[in-house]
Predict the structure.
Amino acid sequence: MGETGCGPDPDAGYSLPAWTYSDPEFFAVETRRIFRPSWQIVAHDSDLPAPGDFHVLDYLGESIIVIRGDDGEARAFANVCRHRGARLVDGPSGRTRKLVCPYHAWTYGLDGCLTGLPMAGSYGNLDRSRHGLSPVDIENFHGFLFVRLEDDGGPSVAQMMAPYIDEIAPYRFSELRALGRVTLRPRAVNWKNIGDNYSDGLHIAVAHPGLKRLMGDGYGVEASPYADKMWGPILDRPSANLSERAYQHFLPAVPHLPPDRQRLWTYFKLWPNFAFDIYPDQVDFMQWLPVSPTQTLIREISYALPDGRREMKAARYLNWRINRQVNAEDTELVARVQAGMASDSFTVGPLSDQEVALRHFCARMRTIIPQARQHRAPKMGWSFDYHDSRHSRAGGNPSPDLTYGEMAGDGSPPSRG
């Protein structure tokens, strides 16, 4: 994504401009062009073991319910009654025999069909078949359940992960079971700051001394069309830190993993806001949901294959302790970046050729929202010029009517602040 069809991308070596991390209008366009067509993880198939089990995901003003039907199928619907728009269920999960609206008792089966209609005669010849719950696209990726609000022709989760499908196969995703409940962590930063930090390999040696002790100089980063891969091998040399040294000691052999993955931590970040953290002992998912231009909600949970060995239980606990510290360090880092971006002195920053994942992300963002090439925020109302009837497999709807010259103002990139 380093070229545009008009030659090399003049912005390829630079970050996105600071204004895109706080601007309400840019955030509204991101919502429409990036997040409504994107896949969002809800739960694992094993989290819905019986008919009527459901999980709910709330984001972007929408509430989506994923529920197990009597036929064993997991389906997704808008968590909204078709009568007056009331929310049907509350809370993140539960079990029910049917979905009954608490407002007027309209009732829906587990397949979303309208089955109960009080005072049915008063609605005339209402066609019940046309008033079932609104369906939402759902994908089961090796046991993990994803939903999306709109189809813009973009790739499935399976297609995004295709370059790495052989790598994840030994971890037996479909057999995983939850180790606990979903943790929610609000952060007062833009969603892109969370993702930028996740895929950034340069800060590991500087800001994460624990990972440096565990991995030495072995941390790597690469980018594919829709997924970034990061990885680091756990060294045999004992760490000076007690929890890290104990993890190195207690982590047992994992029979289903090949030798080169027995002591390897691997991370996959999928477009636009989701990641798998894959360890020998467990698999976590991390999702950063945009709430506002400067507010993000992190959802995360750990899954693992059943393993009753005391060494494995100890390793999983120590993994949590190690990554709790890493999370605390990252929380401070992204807050620093968000605060610094508020300065009028900062527009864009130069990117190292080693920052391959961030370069790739910025290029995709500029393709979807060409105004991201402007180093200063354009005049309010710029997004009304968009032509949203056209869709792009890049993950959004890039405006076909803007050239580099029009975006820059004089036919060249804006001056680098």
